[in-house]
Input
Amino acid sequence: MSDTGLGFSNKKFIALIVVFACCILLFEFVGDLGGGLIKNQAVDTTSKHNNSRLEDRISPVFTLKKNQQQTSEIVTTKIVPAPLATVMNGEEAYNSACFICHTTGAGGAPFIGVPIAWEARMEQGTETLMKHAIEGYRSDSGIMPAKGGRLDLSDQEVKNAVVYLLQ
Ligand code: HEC
Output
């Protein structure tokens, strides 16, 4: 029996290597098995995600919630959004929507500031005049378009314009 120089016989040395190799293979196998299980799980969750709706799939896995205490310490100013729209007063509404006819008398429109043009109309009452201004009106003199053709005006703005017109 020859010696390896390490105090082992050749046979023992080979046996040792075989055992060692077997150990490595065993570890590999166990490792593969574990890896495979994890892999299967991963595939499972992915397939579940594939079945779900797009929003679910693109939604973040987790989101950071604001720390209320912290923000209240840091944010000291309150942002007040500007109002989206303001109501025009009578003069503004008149100038933007009624001026074109009621200052020139276009199409038979009764003139602003000419009482005689309004006397008969005033007898209907302000409410009716406002209704006619909002919904439109037609008699012998011509056509008063609804809201003066400016349908973007609110009823209140048209009412304001009527008050201005009758002053
Ligand atoms: C395109 C021209 C035109 C515009 C713009 C216009 N009007 Fe007139 N308006 C008329 C005419 C024409 C009459 C007369 C209708 C009639 O009596 O036949 C009239 C009549 C009126 C009357 C009297 C209705 C009645 O019952 O006698 C009021 C009030 C009035 N307009 C308010 C307004 C207001 C307020 C606006 C703006 C929001 C406006 N008008 C814009 C043409 C216009």
User: Anything to note?
Assistant: The radius of gyration is 44 Å.
